[in-house]
Write a structure and sequence with these properties.
The structure holds two protein chains of two kinds.
Chain A lengths: L1 E10 L6 H9 L14 E9 L3 H16 L5 E9 L4
Antiparallel strand pairs in A: 1-2, 1-3
Chain B lengths: L3 E6 L6 H10 L3 E6 L10 E4 L19 H11 L3 E5 L1 H8 L6 E3 L7 E9 L15 E8 L3 E3 L2 H9 L3 E5 L10 E5 L5 E4 L16 H10 L4
Parallel strand pairs in B: 1-2, 1-3, 3-4, 4-11
Antiparallel strand pairs in B: 5-8, 6-7, 6-9, 9-10, 10-11
Classes of the chains: A alpha+beta, B alpha/beta.
Chain lengths: 86, 222
C-alpha cells in the first residue's frame, strides 16, 4: 500500500535563525508590523510503500532522522496518511 | 619519502587543486580520491577540501557523507589516521559524525569572503601541534554556512578537553565561543572553516597556511 508522508524540518528553539529574523525585519516596510515570532523551515512530501500506516510512519521517521534533518540544530515532525491514487 | 596525502573530491568540490598545490609546497605528494572510491590505499593523511559537495543540496555535507569514500575515511580516522576537513570538508565531517556540532548559516545571513585573523587555541591536534598557543594566523574565510553551533554539553566537553583548535579574533559569522576549528577526542581529526591552502604564498597575501600543513605532515600528537 502506498502512503503519503509529510516531513517538516525547522531550527530548534535557541538556534539562531537569521533567515526568519531578516524576513521579520523587512515586514514593517510592507505594512506587516503586526507579525512576529516567525520560524522558517523545510517541508518534504514523498510516498512510502508499506504494509501498514505504522510501518510507513516508521520508515518516514527513519529517513527524516537519518538524512532530512540534522539533530544538532533541527527538529522534525513526521506524519503519514493514505496516498491518493493518481 | 614524501608523505602521501589523499585529497577527497566530491562532485562540486572546488578547492582540491589549491590544496594539492599547498601540499606540494610543503613536500607532500597529493593524490586525488574520487568520492565513489571505497579504498584509500596507503596514505599518511587525508584532506577534505572546500567547495559544494553534491551541490550542498539539503544541507552542506548532508549527502556527501553517504559517498562510498566516507566509509573508508571514517575507518582511516578510527585507526588514528590524520584527517583534516577544510570549509565544506569541515561540514562533511560534522554531518558524518566524525566531529561534533554543526555549521549553520552565518550571522546576518552574510556570505563571507575575507581574510580572518585566527589564534591557535590548542597545540594538541594534528593540524596545530608544534605551534605555540596564541600564535596568530591570517587565513581567508569563504563561506555562507560557517557559524559553528553545538549543544552546551558538547561545548563544555570541547573546552574541557582542549579540543578548540582555532578561534577567530574578530568573530565574523556568529560561531559559538569564536570557534573556527575543532578536533575529535583522538586529536587526529580536525575541521576548520578558514582556508589554509589559500594562504600558501606571500603573493596570496599570507603564507600562514603552510605552517598548518607542515604540522599535519610532521607531528606526533600528545
Amino acid at each position: 500500500m502506498r502512503f503519503a508522508a509529510h516531513v517538516e524540518v525547522r531550527l530548534r528553539p535557541g538556534i539562531a535563525d537569521p533567515e526568519s529574523a531578516t524576513i521579520v525585519r523587512a515586514l514593517p516596510a510592507l505594512g506587516f508590523d503586526d507579525v512576529g515570532a516567525m520560524t522558517t523551515g523545510r517541508s518534504f512530501r514523498f510516498e512510502v510503500e508499506a504494509e501498514t500506516e505504522e510501518a510507513a510512519l516508521e520508515r518516514a521517521s527513519a529517513l527524516a532522522a537519518r538524512l532530512l534533518a540534522n539533530p544538532v540544530m533541527e527538529d522534525v515532525s513526521v506524519s503519514v496518511g493514505r496516498a491518493v491514487p493518481a | 619519502m614524501a608523505a602521501r596525502v589523499g585529497v577527497v573530491v566530491f562532485p562540486g568540490t572546488n578547492c582540491e587543486h589549491d590544496v594539492a598545490a599547498a601540499l606540494r609546497r610543503v613536500g607532500a605528494e597529493p593524490t586525488f580520491l574520487w568520492h565513489g572510491e571505497s579504498e584509500l590505499g596507503a596514505l599518511d593523511a587525508v584532506v577534505l577540501p572546500g567547495g559544494f559537495a553534491h551541490g550542498d543540496y539539503l544541507r552542506p555535507g548532508a549527502i556527501a557523507r553517504f559517498s562510498p569514500v566516507m566509509g573508508a575515511v571514517a575507518a582511516f580516522a578510527r585507526a588514528g589516521g590524520r584527517v583534516v576537513g577544510i570549509c565544506n570538508g569541515f561540514q562533511v565531517l560534522t554531518e558524518a559524525g566524525l566531529l561534533p556540532g554543526a555549521l549553520q548559516k552565518n550571522r546576518h545571513l552574510r556570505f563571507l569572503c575575507a581574510p580572518a585573523t585566527l589564534m591557535v587555541a590548542s597545540d594538541r591536534s594534528v593540524l596545530t601541534a608544534g605551534l605555540p598557543v596564541g600564535t596568530e594566523l591570517v587565513l581567508p574565510v569563504n563561506h555562507f554556512d560557517g557559524s559553528y553551533v553545538c549543544d552546551p554539553a558538547t561545548l563544555d566537553e570541547l573546552r574541557g578537553e582542549d579540543r578548540v583548535v582555532l578561534r577567530y579574533l574578530d568573530n565574523p559569522n556568529g560561531s559559538v565561543d569564536d570557534i573556527a576549528g575543532i578536533c575529535n577526542e583522538g586529536r587526529n581529526v580536525v575541521g576548520l572553516m578558514p582556508h589554509p591552502e589559500r594562504a600558501s604564498d606571500e603573493l596570496l597575501g599570507s603564507a600562514d597556511g603552510l605552517v598548518l600543513f607542515r604540522s599535519l605532515l610532521s607531528v606526533s600528537v600528545g
